[in-house]
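re: ur msg from earlier - yeah i can do the beta-D-galactopyranose complex, just paste it... oh wait u already did. ok heres what im feeding in:
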Amino acid sequence: MDLSDALEDWPSGGNQSTGSGMWSGNNPNPNPNPNPTWPGQPQPNPTWPGQPSAGGPTWPGGQPTQPSWPSPQPTSGGGWPSPAPGPTPAPPSAPQRSLSVPYYHQLQNGVHDKMLITIVGTVNPNPQKITVDLNAGHDFAFHFNPRFNEDGHKVIVRNSCIGDKWGKEEREISNFPFVPGQRFEMKILCTNTEYRVAVNNSHIVEYKHRLPNLRAINRLSIYNDVTLHDVQVTRLP
Ligand code: GAL
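and the outut:
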């Protein structure tokens, strides 16, 4: 299978309010109040923008994040898993697993084509910024930095820092998907040429590799104003 097939179900950009098959039935939001920004409706055959559609059905090999999600689906009102099985419905503020922040994950074999990083978190109240880095030793191969108030603007700065020197920032976005107090799911897909980032099933940005030795990228770091619930590193077939 080539990459364009593998990416057949990568979320399309620009529209945060629609869902796709890859998300339906895998909604990690335990809150019974529907979140209007969370995709809910299946969307047939979403395709990567600008890529021809081969009409393929779904994310190949199933839904890569699903095995990692430790719960029954919240769709039938079962809510968040409780240690004591029983009929008690989960309250709206059901406890959520949280990982300590700053969060570090060693990438034993570096980064590679088709590596998929899935991050589930909640933006803290009154946030200034969230940072996700892929580091190669001292260097920042990919620094992804949503800022909530830079002179009154929301921006997502992407950059690399090689040999202690920051490069040219990439800042263009069509959509700033992070909302204070709200849960999000972010996916970073590594390809041979770039990283692709999607949040809540919408493609947000791509970032061409500036540090081409992908095997040297040995750490994922997540920090600043975020509460983390789950981080998974998987490989697309
Ligand atoms: C700097 C900031 C760094 C990093 C960099 C990205 O202004 O201090 O933490 O975000 O921008 O270009």
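cool cool. The two ends are 8 Å apart (CA to CA). ping me if u need the other ligands too
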